[in-house]
Amino acid sequence: MTLRSKSAVVTGSTSGIGLGIARALAREGTNVLINGFGEPQDIEKERAGLEAEFGVKALYSPADMTKPDQIADMIRGAEEAFGGVDILVNNAGIQFVSPVEEFPIEKWDQIIAINLSSAFHTTRAAVPGMKARKWGRIINTASAHSLVASPFKAAYVAAKHGIAGLTKTVALELATHGVTVNCISPGYVWTPLVEKQIPDTMSARGLTREQVINDVLLEAQPTKQFVTVEQVGALAAFLCSEAASQITGTNLSIDGGWTAE
Ligand code: NAD
Question: Given the DSSP bridges, would you call strands 31-35 and 87-90 parallel, antiparallel or unpaired?
């Protein structure tokens, strides 16, 4: 499998799953634009590392996924620099854990903007080029929470169910244009996003750190293991291959059996 001569934009890829996907695509020879927040020197290290390790062109955009104009500029910039965006991975996401009646309104708005609306803004900007070239791959990082719910995650679960619906709709619209649109739904992957929600889950449920890891997080996963970012990256790279050209409109679980229960 090679994706040489293709170019990708991966939102929220300075860390965690997005970085894992960016690295998996670069390994296949794809130019990548990474995006997200972090320390400038750490981001530059990742960007330069992608070029040095895989011999591809790697760019960085600091576009804030809550800002539609910055998102449009990011896609336009990638199209100019790479000559097109063939692969779009909507991955940026944040979490907030709170009972619904105490859920801060600004957190609800922020999660819907980053985890759901940003994918609409990137997609509408990237689709014309994909249609013109008659080839494209759109992959949305959803979650097991696009299929099932957990308490105290109202905004996250709503956004993830929403992105699963957006995926199906856009897949149908692009079905005859050589563009596939799918979502990947991981269970718990050990990343900063999961680590950061442990203290809030400890207080929301009155548990210790070990209890949250074993009785809340891994409790959901029959395999009792975290998914790795490399495994999610490999699935994304497969979805970009020609072998996956008839896979569209699906929601692919990679969750250690969580949603089988
Ligand atoms: P992470 O915190 O490691 O990475 C999130 C990335 O998004 C970072 O690069 C961050 O800088 C970026 N980001 C945050 N706000 C942004 C904004 N406003 N604009 C641009 N970038 C922004 O988290 P992760 O665990 O790798 O999560 C990535 C995606 O995977 C999210 O959509 C998350 O919901 C989903 N997911 C994660 C898990 C898990 O267990 N970790 C499970 C299922 C789904």
Answer: unpaired
Is any ligand 1 atom within 6 A of the Cβ of residue 186? yes
Per-residue confidence band for 220, with pLDDT thresholds at 50, 70 and 90: confident
**Catalytic positions, please?**
156
Which CATH number characterizes residue 130's domain?
3.40.50.720
* DSSP string over 196-234: HHHHHHHHHHT--HHHIIIIIIGGG-TT-SPBPHHHHHH
The residue whose CA has the least distance to atom 31 of ligand 1 is 93
- For ligand 1, say whether the CB of 194 is within 6 Å of any of its atoms: yes
Ligand 1 atom having least distance to the Cα of 186: 43
Task: Based on the fold, state whether residues 221 and 126 are members of the same structural domain.
Answer: no
Full-model pTM:
0.96
Give yes or no: residues 94 and 181 share one domain: yes
Q: 104: how many CB neighbours lie within 10 A of its CB?
A: 11
H/E element, 186: strand 179-186
**Ligand 1 atom having least distance to the Cα of 14:** 9
Q: Is 2 a domain residue?
A: no
Q: Could you tell me the residue range of the domain that residue 195 belongs to? A: 190-226
Q: Is the CB of 159 under 6 A from ligand 1?
A: no
Q: Is the CB of 14 under 6 A from ligand 1?
A: yes
Of the pLDDT bands very low, low, confident and very high (cuts 50, 70, 90), residue 224 is: very high
Amino acid at the residue 240: C
* Same domain membership, residue 200 and residue 137: no
Structural domains of the chain, count: 2
